[in-house]
Design brief:
Helix content is 30%, strand content 27%. The chain has 165 residues and is an alpha+beta fold.
């Protein structure tokens, strides 16, 4: 991930980075580029979306959150059973998911999780497709879980295996 050194206003950030891919996130005056998704990253996102939809959630991927005017993360997956807020969510939803990539900074992932907790997201997950572990933010840290939202974690990996065949 590349970091741009100069402090930016939200307007400057939007002007410079809104069409860049991989996406940039606005972090308190800094432009932080997200990791380039791999094939595995993309497949696990699709699996998570399919399973969340099956469980009754409405889902989105790579949707910018505008809950805090100084921090606009772009989680890999968001999900709600409520109504969508357009054009960007300004309130927390039920589920937010970060899928790890090889070059993700764990300190940045944890900072995102803390922000999601502070904003009031009900379920915060970090998925590590390489080690096939799903973590949920509990109290003040990540804890490995056997259930993702209302879905047994085993179903996530079985569905991923189906995609990989």
């Amino acid at each position: 991930m590349a970091t741009v050194a100069q402090r930016l206003s939200v307007a400057e950030f939007e002007e410079r980075y809104r069409h860049e891919k991989p996406y940039y996130e606005f972090w308190r005056g800094e432009a932080i580029q997200k990791s380039m998704p791999t094939w595995l990253h993309s497949l696990i996102v699709l699996v998570l979306i399919d399973l969340l939809k099956e469980a009754g959630f409405k889902t989105g991927t790579e949707v910018k959150l505008k809950i805090d005017p100084e921090f606009h993360p772009i989680p890999d997956v968001i999900a709600t059973r409520g109504q969508f807020e357009f054009p960007y969510p300004t309130r927390p939803m039920e589920v937010v998911v970060e899928v790890l990539s090889e070059d993700d900074s764990m300190s940045r992932v944890l900072a995102k999780c803390r922000a999601y907790r502070d904003w009031g997201f009900q379920e915060i997950y970090v998925v590590d497709p390489a080690s096939r572990v799903i973590y949920r933010w509990v109290d003040r840290g990540l804890e490995e879980v056997t259930e993702f939202a209302v879905i047994p974690v085993e179903r996530v990996w079985l569905s991923l295996d189906d995609q990989l065949r």
